[in-house]
Amino acid sequence: MSGPDRDRDERFVPALAYRWLTPLYDPLIRLTTRERAFKAGLLEQASVEPRMDVLDLGCGTGTLAIWTKQRVPEARVAGVDGDPEMLEWAESKAERAGVELTLSSGMSFELPHADASFDRVLSSLFFHHLIRADKERTLAEVRRVLRPGGELHIADWARPADPLMSVLSRSIMLLDGREQTEDNLRGRLPDLIAAAGFGEVEQGRAYRTIYGTLALLRARRPATGSAA
Ligand SMILES: C[S@@+](CC[C@H](N)C(=O)[O-])C[C@H]1O[C@@H](n2cnc3c(N)ncnc32)[C@H](O)[C@@H]1O
């Protein structure tokens, strides 16, 4: 194969850029990204409560969705991803973990969910896969599917916190593409979220990793105002 799979399929970038790497995804993420710490941090930040409807956007192999359900069993947890192969992994992992998830195949910029159907949208290691226009379309979709007052919680690559993080973050740019990762690595995600009509946009905890700085973000769909 001569280049990333995105050259063949412009709809989405496979989780590790090359499809043949997909089976290695979980062990690699577990070993290299401080996954336990940052996903636990994201769940703590999101304060999911019983009977809430939660969407894991770009759920991949479903780790965050499964941990959400295990942490708050009375919440209804859904996952959506553009890659049917990742969803198959998610489905069998959820079955092995004995948790019930509603998994759907779909693109983030045309979500297969009704307006105002979620209290929380969570997203991990996902937004840096999108070019600017798709980030904007996706944020509009997230706003649409969130209930007024509902919250978006993101964990993703962010502006490097120091020169070492800056050097390390080049690996993410090389793997997932400059156009996709630039907004993240230049710290522009909060402004894009605010421009999409969210309020209370704030950065939470940041984590040093071997791929650079990973940060948590939060934002709220205003409780009043236009529905769309
Ligand atoms: C790096 S993986 C992250 C998976 C998971 N959230 C995690 O934290 O391990 C990115 C995921 O986003 C999916 N993806 C990329 N672009 C997408 C899009 N526009 N719509 C839906 N899924 C997309 C990929 O298929 C992949 O599963």
Instruction: Quote the distance from N terminus to C terminus.
Output: 42 Å
**Strand adjacency order, main sheet:** 3-2-1-4-5-7-6
CATH class: Alpha Beta
Structural class: alpha/beta
How does the major sheet shape up? 7 strands, mixed
- The overall pLDDT average reads 91
List unreliable stretches of 5+ residues. Answer: 1-9
Count of discrete domains = 1
Q: Tell me the radius of gyration.
A: 16 Å
Explained architecture:
By secondary structure, the protein is an alpha/beta fold. The protein has a single domain (5-220), classed as Rossmann fold, CATH 3.40.50.150. 37% of the residues lie in helices and 24% in strands. The chain has helices at residues 25-32, 35-46, 63-71, 84-97, 132-145, 163-168, 170-176, 178-185, 189-195; strands at 53-57, 76-81, 102-105, 118-124, 146-157, 199-209, 212-220. A seven-stranded mixed sheet has the order 3-2-1-4-5-7-6, with helices on both faces. Helix 5 (132-145) links the parallel strand 4 (118-124) and strand 5 (146-157). Helix 7 packs antiparallel against helix 8 (178-185). It is globular and about 45 Å long. The termini are far apart. Residues 1-9 have low confidence and may be disordered. Bound molecules: S-adenosylmethionine (SAM). Residues 12-15, 29, 58-60, 63-64, 81-83, 86, 107-108, 124-126, 129-130, 134 line the site of S-adenosylmethionine.
